């Protein structure tokens, strides 16, 4: 075999090997790559044919938005959704806020009770059940409430006016701590303490207290209202030949004061009521001798709550009585118009 023959055999062997190699080349996609013609003419531009690899499109759910990945560009993971989309947490949050608003609107509607309709329903149910009306609902008007407050204010002013008159008439006894005068809405209380009025365990008025009792009687003539004389004791038990308990002692002391007030017929009997409370209504706790002394008392209660029809004193009357000494001394003059 010559040199030329060996060269031709080598070329044939190379071509057969290359053909077998090209037949075995397979891309990952599973398609075989066509053989290329490596023999090109001179001057011919080399062109390369590109075969795109098939790709499967998929939808990826990222933060509630559908992001398409594939041939086109897709937003990176963690980026907010584009136009037309909304984050999943925002949709859930909006639903929760709507439900909360509906819940509170429902609660507010329950709080608005129609009194008229409720009354009609209650009466209808009572009639259907064959029973008596369950309740009588009364509509309270604002004017009625204001009128009641105005009446209470006038009563408080009237009571304080008459209480101030009593304080001025009995100022010496008040200064000696024998009497005390208190006022509330429609109620005036003259409190007679045991100091200087009764001996311990006795229901007889002390002789030095009788002038004070007459001053109280004369002062009560010009003050309207029902009179209740009530006796009170401390919690120390008593059992003597005359008094078997504090109840008898309290009642006997109240009667002694009332008897002094009824003397000479200055005050009518119809104004008086006699009561005894013993130790059941103390002013202070019975934990010391000073407090027990305050609890041993007789009270004259002037009830003016039923005097709505009577004319209450005017400001000029109150001012004139409050300045009695100054007016009588010629230092002041009060005119009534």
Describe this protein's structure.
It is a single chain. Helices cover 42% and strands 13% of the residues. The protein is α+β, with helices and mostly antiparallel strands and 337 residues long. The protein has a domain at 149-307: 2-Layer Sandwich (60s Ribosomal Protein L30, Chain: A), CATH 3.30.1330. The strands form two sheets. The protein has a five-stranded mixed beta sheet. A two-stranded antiparallel ribbon has the order 1-2. A hairpin with a 2-residue loop joins β1 and β2 (65-69). The longest helix has 28 residues, at 142-169. It is elongated, with a radius of gyration of 55 Å. The protein starts with a helix and ends in a 9-residue tail after the last helix. Residues 17-79 have low confidence and may be disordered.
Q: What portion of residues belong to β-strands?
A: 5-15%
- Alpha-beta classification: alpha+beta
CATH top-level class of the domain at 149-307: Alpha Beta
Residue share in helix: 40-55%
